[in-house]
């Protein structure tokens, strides 16, 4: 294990952020040493992957722990793929595509690490990681034990799980590799891409669907290596239909997906588009031109500035629609 003092906290919002200590886990033997370090340094702890879904402060007076373990072990006999938390998510998708393991292709090009992926149950284009997971291996920083949690114990839901704000440092994930061999092209934007490009649905493979998802994503989402952002900044709110206010806008201005008789999921990007002209511009934070749900920075924004800009949006959405927008990335205290 490698310990650094006063290290940078990497983050895709371009916030200049430092931590008192940073610890790199190189292999599982490091956890004994980590236990001793944590007993001697009773400080707040932050688990970090690639920093694409966090909003860190200028200084974190604590210990950042990151996994640099990057093994992928495909056990064909038992249909399990065990992947270390330090592996990049899209590298795993590429591994699955080239080994003809289906289910991962709709989640192509989601930034970040494998270890962080179950925390908010990453999802896109009609798929969620929760359907792919068999179980998760972790080190509990409270009890200092290496343990395994089964899928059904993780309480996965839309952009959430019980792994969030937990004492479990994910070390590796066991994925199922024997899912039904369905190519899932039902998502609206995938369907329109197929129609627009006259692609024969019967010719679709795991690989071609992965390429389609990459093409769609690249056309609407900013590349975090080039433009500072954290992806969708707000969750699509799930609200009671009867609670939505239509005093200012008609219902057909909104994009909604039926959840059940009482609740709908509301497209947050459309809500923001409708109030965009009322937002007071900030020096260092703005709304991405191709996607209103994405906030971008010029690399000089602080956590305070970003949260103030977000609060403005939340207040407008609350005033005009009586809807509370929840921030999706983890705000580090
Ligand atoms: C351009 C862009 C597009 C995106 N698109 C999507 C999308 O389509 N769908 C989607 O769901 N998300 C999307 N995201 C969000 C992000 O990619 C995911 O949340 C991703 O899983 C974050 O990975 P990370 O390694 O960067 O996590 P980090 O930002 O480093 O951490 C995120 C959270 O996970 C925790 N964590 C990290 N590693 C561990 C670990 N080993 N054990 C326990 N906890 C850990 C952290 O404490 C933090 O709470 C997007 C982000 C960007 C920038």
Task: Report what the structure shows.
The chain has 333 residues and is of the alpha+beta class. It has 3 domains: 2-67, Uridine Diphospho-n-acetylenolpyruvylglucosamine Reductase, domain 2; 71-136 and 148-220, Uridine Diphospho-n-acetylenolpyruvylglucosamine Reductase, domain 3, CATH 3.30.465; 228-331, Alpha-Beta Complex (Uridine Diphospho-n-acetylenolpyruvylglucosamine Reductase, domain 1). The chain contains 6 helices and 19 strands. Strand 15 and strand 16 (263-266) form a beta hairpin. Bound molecules: flavin-adenine dinucleotide (FAD). Residues 12, 46-54, 67, 85, 110-113, 115-117, 119-120, 122-124, 169-170, 221-222, 224, 229-231, 330 line the site of flavin-adenine dinucleotide.
